[in-house]
């Protein structure tokens, strides 16, 4: 298993151009941003006042970075990356070398894990750079950068951070699930990216589409199906981590029918877990039956 | 007790598509390949060679029938493929990784990385000096050599090689042919070799199967298949009298200068005796073995004629 994981890691990291443009761009971008802002703040007192009009906390900064993989734009970028990783094997005709060497189900599971771990690593790096960078900028601006590190603070922070990282990992696995299925259907990177984007786009459009269907069929409660989508639940868990409360999602079906969704953390974790298991399971099921004919 | 064959294929069929687009790529193929042989698998383009090979490697699900390798079912006992090394339809790799990295990735995928073996194989296939360069810059021949190294990574007992000399120069082809033969003769490996280079197959293989339109149309030891089609060329005088004498026993054709007789080398003394007894002067009797290429073409044409 460890060998297989390392093989997948080398393949993912070795595709430097793709990994650089779609994953490493986040930590590198954070570093570049900090450097530019640092130079500006060092040179301009106005900038120092404008950038930090209120003190910020390192615990918030470190966790905030993890929102990127969960928001729609971040998910699209990561979906492009996962599409390359899965559909690439078809386009480069490398499945024929790999499949006889190990069990198909294990190949898929490890590919998902390596992909998730790779992206989490990139975001851990980004969060460290971002947190340290913000600390340096706070120092330049003469602002406090708390809280002071105590056992309780560290325990709270570690819990939030682990949950945020787990959420990003989950988000990546779901994106990878879309990309893997799209890649299997189209057997090309571009096809995988486009179909994956289309699935994500449809998921984001689902709220108004469900509202329209509810209006036309006169079953407005159908909008509650939106509560089962990964996007909504990722945002809900993110809200629980950052604000300690549920996200409030309102869908107006008609003048009389207006639904506000608020769900518990446990509900969203359950739905996301079901999506992960479902997508990975479906990918394995299809891959085990698929003919590798090229 | 009979030894378990290296490969046993039973009633293997594969159909692609449905209804009007239905294509029967492989039809009820049955083969048995003993351990330690170099087995040639011949057929024109689209005959079903690669589809059969892909089913042997569990890349394609058979519609019917099954493949057993060293007595184990490839679909149900996938692990048996760890004893197999293969090149399928040209060697393809991760172009963004170096040759060495590609081999390491494949070895790790099989949970069998031995860095010394990787180095030794790179040396053996003549790629040690380019091992650190990305495969993107490799020629077709270099990729093919890397493919052979990849196939040998786990020191397999069975090698399935689909066009292994594609893209190699004549010297490289000769090297690979010798290498394949030595794997069987010196190391007891079984080689399943698919090639369109019939001269290559004739030189290297012990046994061959010819597949055409998805069906096995001939199968046997190379020497037996060609022996059955042996001919003798006879230079004698008077030629018409010689043709009449020999025509009583064998099929004879004449080009005005010599006779071509459908007879084996063992028939030569009998044939000469007959001619001498009938007062025909014999100047030369030459045994002409049909080449595998001629045999292959005659079989494929015969099959096409039979279908028409």
Describe this structure as you would to a colleague.
The complex is a heterodimer of chains A (294) and B (308). By secondary structure, chain A is mainly alpha-helical. Chain A has one domain (2-289). Helix content of chain A is 75%, strand content 3%. Chain A has 11 helices and 2 strands. Chain A has helices spanning 2-14, 16-43, 45-51, 58-64, 72-91, 95-98, 104-141, 151-186, 189-217, 230-243, 265-289, and strands spanning 249-252, 258-261. A two-stranded antiparallel ribbon of chain A has the order 1-2. In chain A, a hairpin with a 5-residue loop joins β1 and β2 (258-261). In chain A, α8 (151-186) packs across α9. The two termini of chain A are 26 Å apart. Chain B is 35% helix and 27% strand. Chain B starts with 6 loop residues before the first strand and ends with a helix. Chain B folds into 2 domains: 7-222, Rossmann fold (3-Layer(aba) Sandwich); 230-288, Alpha-Beta Plaits, CATH 3.30.70. The mean pLDDT of chain B is 87. In chain B, the strands form 3 sheets. Chain B has a 6-stranded mixed beta sheet, with helices on both faces. By secondary structure, chain B is an alpha/beta fold. The A-B interface holds A 1, 3-4, 6-7, 10-11, 14-17, 92-104, 107, 289, 291-293 and B 51, 54, 57-61, 78, 81-82, 84, 86, 88-89, 92-97, 101, 104-106, 108-113, 150.
Structure, briefly:
The complex is a heterodimer of chains A (294) and B (308). With 294 residues, chain A is mostly helical.
Range of helix content of chain B: 25-40%
The helix tally of chain A amounts to 11
Under CATH, the topology of the largest domain in chain B can be stated as Rossmann fold
- Total strand count of chain A, please? 2
Number of helices of chain B: 10
Low-confidence stretches of chain B: none
Q: Uncertain segments of chain A of ≥5 residues (pLDDT<50)? A: none
Summarize the helices and strands and which ones pair or pack.
The complex is a heterodimer of chains A (294) and B (308).
Chain A: H1 2-14, H2 16-43, H3 45-51, H4 58-64, H5 72-91, H6 95-98, H7 104-141, H8 151-186, H9 189-217, H10 230-243, E1 249-252, E2 258-261, H11 265-289
Helix pairs in contact in A: 1-7, 2-3, 2-5, 2-7, 4-7, 5-8, 5-9, 7-8, 7-11, 8-9, 8-10, 8-11, 10-11
Chain B: E1 7-16, E2 23-33, E3 38-42, H1 49-56, E4 64-69, E5 72-73, E6 84-87, H2 99-109, H3 115-124, H4 140-151, E7 158-162, H5 170-187, E8 190-194, H6 198-204, E9 207-212, E10 215-221, H7 222-227, E11 231-237, H8 239-247, E12 252-254, E13 259-261, H9 268-277, E14 281-288, H10 292-307
Parallel strand pairs in B: 3-8, 3-9, 6-7, 7-8
Antiparallel strand pairs in B: 1-2, 1-4, 4-5, 9-10, 11-13, 11-14, 12-13
